[in-house]
Amino acid sequence: MHGKDPYWEAANVTDGWNWHQPDGTATPAHQPALTRPPVSPPDAGSPWWSDALGDPWRDPRAPAAVVLPTPPGAGGAAPEPVTDPDAAPRRGMTSVLLISIFAALLAGSLGGALGYAFAVRGGVAGGTVLGSSGEAPEVAQRPPDSLAGVAERVSPSVVTVRVAASGGSSVGSGFVATADGYVITNDHVVEGASGGATVVFSDGSTASGSVVGHDAESDIAVIKVSRPNLVPVEFGDSEAIAVGDPVLAFGSPLALANTVTAGIVSALDRTIQSGEPGGQVRYYAAIQTDAAVNQGNSGGPLVDGAGRVIGVNSVIKSLAADEEQAGNIGLAFAIPINQAKRVAQDIIDTGKARRTVIGATVADNGRNPGGGVRLSAVDAGGPAAAAGLKAGDVVTKLDGRLLEEGTDLIALVRKYAPGAVVTVEYRRGSTKQTASVTLAADAK
Asked: Which intervals hold domain PDZ (predicted)?
């Protein structure tokens, strides 16, 4: 149907439907022939006319219009505010702001309380706590066979030796050999001493000492101190060690007392000749080690992994021509303790050491073109002569050790005690022979 219903027109649409006559007046109470069925009035408390869409007299083709609120002063009553009963109630911005401020204050107070609790527990209030807040742990005891355990056990027996000489003073090392005060050191530490020696112990205490005796060629000296409760070292067996065994070197390198360095046995029976031209010549069939040894270590003990002394630190190799500028390059040498102990015992017992000889003279200290060491002379009645050796014979081995220079024969012989029997292999012309030689002490 086109056109408007002569009786009803959808004039206004708000949140429901209000019906008016075409002239805009309200529907009269009486109806013409076309009458509306009775409809329950809308709930006065609700803005919705819940059955408006079900009104049988509503023209579904009638246009809808949105009715705006009547401006103030325009006459007529303002429409009742409309709200959605199913919508969540809106809070004002003031409430949201107050809740946010309260939450922030609560979080700040809680954080401050926790921070203060942690600070007080850590022993610091208001500052940064570094490290663990727990109690300091007890210091762990090192196993006796560890390097630290060995160092702790040996250090009380190691001393620093200070000697005044005509040319100044020297500083070396040493170690307590007996409970009654005998100290072993190097001869070159006490060389030229104009008086006694001062011995400094690991705890810093000192004692005056006197030089009992020394042997220049073997480079061993003995000092005596008077001091109670001394702890002597434990001696090892230098013949029982092997290349690769761990070792510790003790002493006062460059006057730095109570120094311990570690390394291994690098070589055995390393023959060394030292001494200034025209001065004292010393021979060593030494234990070679890569443990750091410097000036001032001389006379200090070289110990094995069990803390037993196996050598006396004595010599270093250096690239520096000047002895005063020489320093460690990983080549250090110690007198085998079997030899050092024997010489020290002689000095304590008799005031001097016996020197072991073979009773022959080597041709020179250079290398023999055919290998081995040529004998230039043999002492009549001496050990070599008694074993059948003659001048001109070339000794190639001593107890299985190859000889290449005269120094090798002299140093190896010095290592043995007088009376020791050694096997000598030699060459006479084109014939190779073997002899057993009983070494002896020299007549000095």
From this structure: 347-404
Q: Are 281 and 334 members of one domain?
A: yes
> Structurally, how many domains does the chain consist of?
4
Least confident of 22-31, 334-343, 346-355, 401-410: 22-31
Is residue 128 in some structural domain?
Answer: no
pTM of the full predicted structure?
0.70
298 is catalytic: yes
Catalytic residue among 157, 173, 187, 188: 188
Q: What integer pLDDT is reported at residue 1 of this predicted model?
A: 46
Token output for 101:
């401020």
Task: Identify the domain containing residue 333 by its residue range.
Answer: 240-342
Whether 259 and 332 share a structural domain:
yes
Is residue 141 one of the residues assigned to a domain?
A: no
Helices (H), 365-426: 383-386, 406-415
SS3 384: helix
Assess whether 299 and 209 both reside in one domain: no
What is the tens place of the pLDDT at every residue in 291-315?
999 999 999 999 999 999 999 999 9
Catalytic residue among 173, 187, 215, 219: 219
Structure tokens at 373: 């060491």
Residue 20 designated active-site: no
**Active-site residue flag, 145:** no
